[in-house]
Design a protein that fits this description.
Elements lengths: L2 H21 L7 H17 L23 E3 L9 E2 L2 H14 L6 E7 L2 E8 L2 E7 L5 E3 L2 H4 L16 E9 L2 H13 L8 H9 L4 H6 L3 E8 L8 H10 L9 E3 L2 H14 L7 E8 L2 H7 L9 E5 L4 E13 L5 E12 L2 E7 L3 H7 L6 E5 L7 E5 L42 H12 L11 H9 L14 H4 L7 H13 L5 H7 L7 H11 L2 H6 L2 H5 L6 H12 L1 H13 L7 H4 L10 E5 L7 H10 L3 E3 L8 E4 L5 H10 L3 E3 H7 L2
Helix pairs in contact: 1-2, 12-13, 16-17
This protein binds adenosine monophosphate and zinc ion.
């Protein structure tokens, strides 16, 4: 088989497996086999850029960065939906419909997925555009990011029309959302509040590789085109499935409003069994001809109606407000409740967020409170039943000292959270920092778990993560549940962590706001911990994607005497505090200060490699041409609009060869 045919076949196979895995949820090969094939394709594509395909399955991993999302007009306006809340609302709606159309009316009942609306445009079976709803007339072009969502087909199958739009909802399934939050907590950051906002926020991330990591999903419900190859909404859903889209199978046909209500009532109860959140049901007149006759009001179709579920609430008694201290010292107030059933689970605790929230709702111990559960990990208190408040109830006085170490709390200008500033002496902070240091994505110390850290700290054997490197087997053996063998493993695990690369060590240090990605950026930019420690706020902010919040936090970390000592100790034990020579060997400053835009198809190197070369040589890659662009590296088929823009701004356009000469 020649290479071109081989590339085509791999793409075809990967598309099919992708479809089976992400759309049908019925994989037929192992993840390992899938990754092997993907790697093979990646390699072939890199060696043969002439077979570039903007919709290759290899693009699912992202990598392109969008600085500004372009505003584009929708081909078909994206309307909102009218809402109904009761049987009567639906019956009134049916009466209005019957006045406007003749004959029997059937309804499609669908779930109302709670996410961010999305319009996808397909031409000749290929995804060409993905646009947010915006104001309904125009939205933001988020194609690069949406391409990374595995259940969005990049290439359709079957008898699809040549050109159409399809509408759907980008959602974050609950399980994936919970996992993202676990990771957030590991990084010492506030958890995301709910899946919907997190899904829509994800679409506007600049780095598509970041989007690719998020477990987003896309559920489709409506096809728009000048001429459609079906007559009813229900058939449309089936067609969309046939073409490779993910269309949930819960949709049902109803002959009348009673059948619609049966669907509504069923899902009001069973919605908690779904892997994602819904906030109601959408009812649509099934016949497209009838839809046409009914048309639209200024805001919404007359042929569709949303039925919104009431948010589930429970009433409980707030016994006590307690306060938790996180590893960064952040204080979180927690409501300890009389156990109560809510949305299928027993709730005993609810989040009170911060002091302002408690004051705003005037929440007091002993109050009868309303508890709601949205997508949050723990439910929240949304109000107080003041009629139940006892006469001698006292307003809540927020704590002023740390519940763990008694240090007076501080609250920074503009921040909602209180902090315990006793970083060096506050037990949950000490333990939390070491637990973070050893965690999987940080130093990944085998043989050492979170509970052992607590034991080690409580027995006075360690007080910060540098102390780990002085532990001896003899010190560890006497501890609870320790034996010769496990102690040996622990010491070996610590020893092995000295090989962990600098970027992960930097993440492990637990600098506030320095998560995995930021740590990578900083490690790459500064190369050694000493250079990073010397950087000023202004210098840090000048680094791509580093904002003032991060910069302030980094400077504060290195200003601390205690941290300086810890770092010197880590150095003396041989922990990696600079980028290794092997990685450095390929890096130069030749392109420092220059911003490049890459466009078109290349021959000597792939686009990804080209971008890496720019960055490795100190240059910056940007997605769009502006006054700040220094060079456009143009391959074959460079976009005409880019060309015009570069010419009008006087930005030099260089070829691949010219670029490669620059870094020779
Ligand atoms: P609203 O934002 O409350 O006006 O509700 C309208 C939105 O519901 C639409 O813009 C869609 O994003 C969303 N939606 C979710 N599921 C569906 C569905 N099955 N059919 C139509 N719209 C839906
Ligand atoms: Zn404290």
């Amino acid at each position: 088989m020649n290479t071109e045919a081989q590339i085509h076949q791999l793409r075809e196979e990967l598309r099919e497996h992708n479809y089976k895995y992400y759309v049908l949820d019925q994989p037929t090969i192992s993840d390992f086999e899938f990754d092997q094939k993907l790697k093979q394709l990646q390699q072939l594509e890199a060696e043969h850029p002439e077979f570039y395909d903007a919709n290759s399955p290899t693009l699912r991993v992202g990598g392109e960065v969008t600085k500004n999302f372009e505003t584009v007009a929708h081909r078909f306006r994206m309307y909102s939906l009218d809402n109904s809340y009761s049987k009567e609302d639906l019956e009134d709606w049916e009466k209005r419909i019957k006045k406007l159309v003749d004959g029997a009316v059937e309804y499609t009942c669908e779930l109302k997925y709670d996410g961010a609306s999305m319009s996808l445009t397909y031409e000749h079976g290929k995804l060409v555009k993905a646009v947010t709803r915006g104001d309904g007339v125009q939205g933001d072009d988020v194609t690069t990011n949406v391409k990374t969502i595995r259940s969005v087909p990049l290439q359709l199958k079957g008898d699809y029309p040549d050109s159409f739009d399809i509408r759907g909802e980008i959602i974050l399934p609950l399980e994936g959302f919970a996992k993202m939050n676990e990771e957030r907590l590991e990084e010492g950051e506030e958890p995301y509040r709910n899946p919907r906002n997190t899904a829509s926020g994800s679409l506007k991330l600049q780095d598509s590789a970041e989007v690719a990591k998020r477990p987003l999903d896309c559920l489709l419900y409506s096809i728009k085109a000048n001429r459609l190859p079906f007559d009813t909404q229900f058939e449309g859903l089936q067609k969309a499935r046939d073409w490779g889209f993910k269309v949930p199978s819960e949709a049902k046909l109803a002959k009348n409003i009673d059948e619609v209500l049966a669907f509504v009532n069923y899902w009001d109860v069973h919605r908690h069994d779904l892997p994602y959140e819904i906030d109601g049901v959408v009812v649509k007149v099934n016949n497209l001809q009838q839809q046409d006759e009914l048309g639209y009001t200024a805001k919404a179709p007359r042929w569709a109606m949303a039925y919104k579920f009431k948010a589930e609430q429970a009433v409980s008694v707030l016994h006590k407000i307690t306060y938790q201290v996180g590893r960064t010292g952040a204080i979180t107030p927690v409501a300890n409740l009389e156990p109560v059933e809510l949305a299928g689970t027993i709730v005993k605790r609810a989040s009170l967020h911060n002091a302002d929230q408690i004051a705003k709702l005037d929440i007091r111990e002993g109050d009868t409170v309303f508890v709601e559960k949205g997508g949050e990990i723990i439910p929240k208190i949304v109000g107080v039943d003041f009629t139940q408040r006892s006469k001698d109830s006292e307003p809540t006085v927020y704590i002023s000292a740390c519940p763990e170490c008694d240090t007076p709390l501080i609250r920074k200008e503009g921040e909602a959270q209180h902090y315990c500033p006793n970083t060096e002496g506050c037990p949950p902070q000490i333990i939390g920092r070491i637990q973070h240091f050893i965690s999987r994505k940080a130093m990944d110390i085998e043989g050492l778990g979170g509970e052992t850290v607590t034991l080690l700290v409580n027995n006075g054997l360690i007080n910060n993560y540098a102390d780990l490197y002085e532990l001896t087997k003899e010190q560890v053996i006497p501890l609870e549940r320790m034996a010769e063998k496990s102690a040996e493993n622990l010491i070996q695990g610590i020893e092995a962590s000295k090989q962990i690369p600098f970027e992960r060590v930097l993440f492990a240090l637990g600098i506030r706001y320095v998560g995995e990605t930021v740590a990578k950026k900083l490690a790459k930019h500064y190369k050694t911990i000493d250079r990073l420690a010397e950087a000023s706020e202004e210098q840090l902010v000048a680094v791509d994607e580093i904002g003032t919040k991060i910069a302030e936090s980094v400077v504060a970390f290195f200003a601390s005497e205690a941290n300086k000592i810890t770092i010197e100790r880590l150095k003396s034990y041989g922990v990696q505090l600079e980028i290794s020579a092997a990685v450095l060997a390929n890096q130069t400053d030749k392109l420092a200060g220059n911003t490049f835009v890459v466009s078109g198809v290349f021959h000597q190197v792939s686009r990804t490699e080209l971008k890496k070369l720019i960055e490795d040589n100190g240059g910056k890659v940007s997605g769009s041409i502006s006054g700040k662009t220094h060079y456009v590296v143009a391959g074959d088929n460079m976009g005409p609009s880019k060309k015009t823009k570069a010419e009008s701004l006087g930005v030099p356009i260089i070829s691949e060869m010219e670029f490669l000469e620059m870094i020779q």
